Amino acid sequence: MSDSKKTKPEVDAPVGPAPEELQIVDIEVGDGPEAQASSVVDVHYLGVSYDSGEEFDSSWSRGESINFPLRNLIAGWQEGIPGMRVGGRRQLTVPPQLAYGPAGGGHPLSGQTLIFVIDLLGVQ
Asked: Domain of life here (predicted)?
């Protein structure tokens, strides 16, 4: 994979129990501006359920990135994206308490540990 920015990432099925804490892994470190907690971020992302390995959401599938104030996103993103640099690709493994809450919380993803692969395209 010579240029990861142009291709949708793939996530290998995780092995073992889901982590209870946020896990942050830089797949590729960017060299652009750094995201801050107060940033508006432009990202491409893939979301996969830890348990099933099934994709539940992807900006790649819609063919366009998303642009959001970081503070409006789930806690796992609010904690896991600051410090990331534009041009980077980062994998976040987000436990339920930093995603959509415990099982029965009313969201389809409540109670699930989620894996996101995020490409940071821009910050403002």
From this structure: Bacteria
